[in-house]
Amino acid sequence: MDSRSHTHVTAALRLCLHALLAGLLALVVARAMGEGAPDTAAVVSVTLLTAALYAAGAARSSSVQPGTPAGAWWLGGLWALWAVLLVLSPDALWVAFPLYFLQLHFLPMRWALPAVVVTAAAAITSFAVHRQEIEPGAFIGPLIGAAVAVATVLGYDALFRESERRRELIVELVATRADLAEAERTAGTLAERERLAREIHDTLAQGLSSIQLLLRAAERSLPENAPAAPHVRAAREAAQANLAEARSFVRALTPPDLEHGSLAAALERLCARTTAPELTVRFAVSGTPVELPTPYEVALLRTAQSALANTVRHAEARRAEITLSFMDTSVALDVVDDGRGFDPSGAPGHERGEGGEGGDGGFGLPAMRARAGSLGGALSVESAPGQGTAVALTLPLPDTEGERAA
């Protein structure tokens, strides 16, 4: 009857309760008819009414439920018929045992326990009145039955709550694993997109740019009516078209944060969506912004993301600042926080993460240094215990003519 669970165990317990009550009611009728009691007809009638009322409630379990008026009236009717049966037959006291379970099931615990006590007291009183004597078994039997019923219900409820808690943990674990798999899949996709963009830029685009420059130089050195001039011009135009196609591939493979705005806008969004208790993140631009090649923007953005992630995870900082500085010959990114800091010289290979806790397992700073080195730049980390951390990435600005070509 418990709508919370429809497992095989609860179904079996429900059937056992039905069988127990039916058997005890049958026992009452059999004893009354066997002994030829003067109230046999009344006992049989009340027993049949009790069985019919119980069967009606069991058949309409969808409406006769704990906490509903129908359930309360149904349980009250059963108890009233049982009380009448107690007056007519001393054997009715054994029906108290299934009534204990019904009361514990249909009533809140603060009402169920007193109801069980009253039911046990009624059973004991009935035995004493009918037998005209007081026996230890008259007290022990109903009281032990009540104790067993209470212990069984409380134990089942404890097991049920533990099972629900484990089920919720399993659901949460499955959801977490799915989220983690999706995050890893997304990270792998972004990393592969970035790698392809870098490879296309550093190989195909640079090669086509060089071919275009060489063909332009060859075209200028040829006489105007030279037979080879049209072929050189056609080759240069083909190289130019393919270079534009390669650039479009690079733009399509850039990180999503850079697809809808400049590097400064992407860094500002990064600061806005970075949240941690009592942490304030600010962004500033210094100097006159210039257009940067895609690999530069990717390296600067990834460095900012990694450094800021370490600040959130390990630094316990209250304030962090990201500054993008454009200078005459270089561009610099500084990520500074006022967290607990760490001793860079004490880390193995000087490659620990920000905040003194190993960062992201020792891979954050090597990745930043690798990005900086691949673009001819440098990464520096300044920190001390209790004095915060500063991560600075400096990249040399590419040659203007070379950037137009690239």
Characterization of the model:
Strands 1-2-3-5-4 form a 5-stranded mixed beta sheet. It has helices at residues 8-35, 40-59, 69-88, 96-106, 109-131, 136-221, 229-252, 263-273, 294-315, 364-374, 400-405, and strands spanning 280-286, 319-326, 330-337, 378-383, 389-396. 65% of the residues lie in helices and 9% in strands. The two termini are 75 Å apart. It is built from 11 helices and 5 strands; from the N terminus they run ααααααααβαββαββα. Residues 1-6, 347-363 and 400-406 have low confidence and may be disordered. The longest helix has 86 residues, at 136-221. Helix 4 runs parallel beside helix 6 (136-221) and helix 9 (294-315) packs antiparallel against helix 10. With 406 residues, it is α+β, with helices and mostly antiparallel strands. The radius of gyration is 41 Å and the shape is elongated. Strand 1 (280-286), helix 9 and strand 2 (319-326) form a beta-alpha-beta unit.
Strand content: 5-15%
Mean pLDDT over the full residue set: 79
* Span of the ends, CA to CA: 75 Å
Radius of gyration from the alpha-carbon trace, in angstroms: 41 Å
Low-confidence stretches: 1-6, 347-363, 400-406
Summarize the structure.
The protein is an alpha+beta fold. The chain contains eleven helices and five strands.
Describe this protein with a few key phrases.
single chain; about 400 residues; alpha+beta; 5-stranded mixed beta sheet; 11 helices; about 10% strand; disordered N terminus; disordered C terminus
